[in-house]
Specification:
Distance between the termini: 36 Å
Strand order of the largest sheet: 4-5-6-7-3-2-1-8-9-10
Number of helices: 12
Structural class: alpha+beta
Order of helices and strands: HHEHHHEEHEEEEHEHHEEHEEHHE
Helix content: 25-40%
Largest sheet: 10 strands, antiparallel
Radius of gyration: 23 Å
Strand content: 15-25%
Length: 366
């Protein structure tokens, strides 16, 4: 069953990719949307399939690979196409036929190809990953699921939905409206996400609004408040010095309803990153001190045929200074020279960094 689970997960991510890649083949107006001819933000907050994401999730990510792929033209890249064809040689014949069929007619996957997928990390108990998609055709989805699992699974009815559990770590739950996948090595507890009260649904929370209503190709929301709650709980359990616990408690109280939102939009051959952090002014000032606008001073060393470039400018020494002034580094004082070492590392890593990926003349990735 382990192999079955791995196959199903790999296939799910591939289907999200393949079915999204062919969104422009639809004749219901989505091609026009994908081409950037509409500007009104699409609101998914009332969609049934997003109501399984709890409001205390650590991270929520909306992803529309179709937009990214269609705009970037990545499927036309000869190197990427060759690598896929090489990998497909190892697929069992039935699965390869299934992939080929879905690639040519994405609606055959059973997943609604006109809506984005949402991926979340849940902060309840042991961290779970949940993936939710809008269902298109439940019969096609079940046929796809059985082919991938070599007819080794039998869905059972649970809470009005069909459920497939694999080794208790992975659960596929679906009905005519949605597909929910839950992954947790300590048990995929699907009841944590089905029939959530209205006040526990992330899509109903104002702080997550930016994730469910936009036209961006990818949106990431980090729940800063929840992250700080977990950090504070861990520090309290480990019996840290009282001044450290108090410092984190003050920070937690300052971060109520705080989130970090980042979105990517691929347009005109470039990926635009927009970010926004909802923090008290004091902490927003710290962010401005630490994250600086890149000057692109290293771009003269980057090959013209690079297909991906990452450039950032961090002042980690300033971050160290702010943490020290707030008593968050008291624990380092127990070890001789620890604070000095951390300060030296922060200073050494401060500055502008650039990374790039390209393909050389021998088609080898760098």
């Amino acid at each position: 069953m382990k192999k079955t689970a791995q196959t199903l997960l790999m296939a799910l991510f591939c289907f999200l990719f393949f079915t999204s890649c062919n969104n422009t083949k639809n004749e219901n107006g989505d091609a026009e949307k994908k081409a950037g001819k509409t500007s009104a933000a699409v609101d998914y907050s009332n969609s049934d399939y997003v109501k399984v994401i709890p409001d205390n999730a650590l991270v929520i990510q909306k992803i529309d690979l179709g937009n990214l792929v269609d705009k970037s033209g990545i499927l036309k890249n000869a190197v990427i196409k060759a690598k896929y064809e090489e990998a497909a040689k190892d697929f069992p014949s039935e699965i390869k036929q299934l992939f080929d069929k879905i690639y040519s007619n994405p609606s055959k996957s059973g997943i609604n190809i006109n809506s984005p997928a949402f991926i979340a990390l849940d902060g309840v108990g042991p961290v779970s990953m949940i993936i939710t998609c809008e269902m298109g055709n439940i019969q096609d989805f079940e046929a796809t699921l059985q082919t991938l699992a070599e007819n080794q699974i039998k869905p059972i009815e649970r809470n009005g939905m069909k459920c497939v559990e694999i080794d208790r770590e992975i659960a596929f739950v679906y009905d005519y409206e949605k597909l929910l996948v839950v992954l947790n090595e300590r048990g995929a507890y699907i009841n944590n996400y089905l029939n959530l009260p209205e006040n526990r649904i992330a899509a109903n929370s104002p702080k997550f609004a930016g994730c469910f209503k936009n036209n961006d190709d990818l949106t990431l929301v980090v729940n800063i408040e929840r992250v700080m709650e977990l950090a504070y709980a861990e520090i309290s359990r480990n019996r840290m010095p009282s001044e450290v616990v108090q410092a984190y408690n003050n920070l937690l109280n300052s971060c109520k309803n705080s989130v970090f939102i980042a979105s990517l939009d691929f347009k005109d051959g470039k990926v635009t990153l927009n970010s926004n952090i909802n923090l008290p002014q004091e902490y927003a000032g710290i962010i401005n001190d630490v994250i600086k606008k890149p000057t692109h001073s290293h771009f003269g060393y980057i090959p013209a045929n690079s297909f991906a470039v990452l450039n950032y400018n961090f002042n980690l020494q300033q971050l160290y200074n702010h943490m020290e002034s707030r008593g968050l580094l008291k624990e380092l004082e127990k070890e001789r020279g620890a604070k000095e070492l951390v300060s030296a590392i922060a200073s050494a890593l401060s500055g502008e960094w650039t990374a790039a990926a390209w393909v050389d003349r021998h088609d080898q990735e760098q």
